[in-house]
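PROTEIN DATA CARD
Card holder: HTH-type transcriptional regulator
Chain length: 166
Origin: Neolewinella litorea
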Amino acid sequence: MELEEGKEKFIEAWGALGSSWGVTRTMAQIHALLLVASDPLSTDDIMDELQISRGNVNINTRMLLDWGLAHKKLIPGERKEFFVGEKDMSKVVKNIIIARKKRELEPMLRLLDDLTGVHGDGPDAREFREVIKDLKLYSHKADSALAALVKVDSNWFFSTFLTMIK
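Structure generated from the sequence above:
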């Protein structure tokens, strides 16, 4: 397989995987392109490579910057913005966990806290409170586990993880 074909397959696969971690296919494809690029890429470079609009590139690169999955790179003498993908996979995983926790788990925890105070008598009300209590318990355990995972020394975590899956 030639390099260009490999890059295309990787970008397409990473884009499909992106929906699993809560981002759009285009955002994940831009991230994949930045990951495999040996040099920083401009908005024009990304547009040309992925055949997408300037607006699409601008929106998705901003999101990648917000998630900590890409960084701006200043090139002396250039007026364009250039972008570099975060290539440290432990940081990539950590940043995805942090972003998803903030976007998905934390709002659910707040909702469950609010629902804990629901009043009512009868079997339906008791069942509702019991389900909310259980969900809250497991959601807090997940939150604690993710928080611990983010704090763990990434080299230790990944070497242990890789040893486990071998």
